Amino acid sequence: MKLSRMFQSKADAFREAVRNDDLPRMERLMQKKGYEFFFEILSGEYVADITPRMATLLIDKLDDAALKRWQMKAGSQQTVIDSMLGQSLYRNRLDIAELLMEKGGTDFNQKSGGWFLSRVIGSNFDDAVKLRMMKQMLARGYDKMQETDLSLQFAVDKKFAGAVDLFAAIGLDLHKNNEQLLRGAARDKSADMALHLVTRHAADIDLAISTEMALGNAPVFEFLTELKKQLPEKPAVRTVETLTAEVGSLQDTVRELTEKLARMQGGATLDKPVLRNPSP
């Protein structure tokens, strides 16, 4: 043993093994007992430095025996994996996040599923990558997820139109509480997101304006009023009176055509004799 390691704490040894990508040393540490490992593995700070192969080692070798030595309950391997995944999303470690989503076995259709969605939305990954990961998370269902509404609001706050479209596609309500999402976009002065909600998802801008007026939020309803001017004109509403006028005009046209056809059939004749069938 190196002299520098003789008085090294187990927590420092764990962090050093991760930092140096020292797989043999990590395997030796997994044979040792110590509550320090419990705090290290769940704190998640090590995820900033971990390599995909070290993450794979922890996934594959952190069995019930190792968990017990590290003062964790048998069968809690998934808790460690979920913690690593959350930290990888928070720390923008796409390589580790994709590895864990591929082989980690996390079931996102549970209470914490909405939290994971929000982590993806808030990451620095490309939008296309975020959408792919969100679709993976939603693939097993979302009926047991909690805080999906908060994830939807977060997508609006982050001006992530693709995520808003995805949430709309799975049936989340984009119009609750008097167009809360549209009014939130207006409060952030996010014209692009506000227009997206109106033009793509039929948000009721008039309802949003009247709500903000009732609440006395002048900057917000003024913003929405100016935004409304950018929208195309709505087609005129067809009232009973306009429909009656249209039907009357149609009847007049039909009458004129009928009279013209009658004149053509009764008055005009051809100069040429009618051809008869030849005799047999």
Quick overview:
The protein is an all-alpha fold. About 65% of the residues lie in helices and about 0% in strands.
Q: Whole-number radius of gyration? A: 34 Å
Q: How many strands appear in the DSSP assignment? A: 0
Order of helices and strands: HHHHHHHHHHHHHHHH
Assembly classification: single chain
Show unreliable segments: 268-280
The structure class reads mainly alpha
Task: Give a verbal description of the structure.
By secondary structure, the protein is mainly alpha-helical. Helix content is about 65%, strand content about 0%. The longest helix has 28 residues. The chain is elongated, with a radius of gyration of 34 Å. The termini are far apart. The C terminus is likely disordered.
Key structural traits:
280 residues; mainly alpha; 16 helices
Set out the fold topology.
Layout: H1 10-19, H2 23-29, H3 35-43, H4 52-61, H5 64-69, H6 77-90, H7 94-103, H8 113-122, H9 127-138, H10 148-157, H11 161-169, H12 176-187, H13 191-201, H14 205-215, H15 218-228, H16 240-267
Helix pairs in contact: 1-2, 1-3, 6-7, 8-9, 8-10, 12-13, 12-14, 14-15
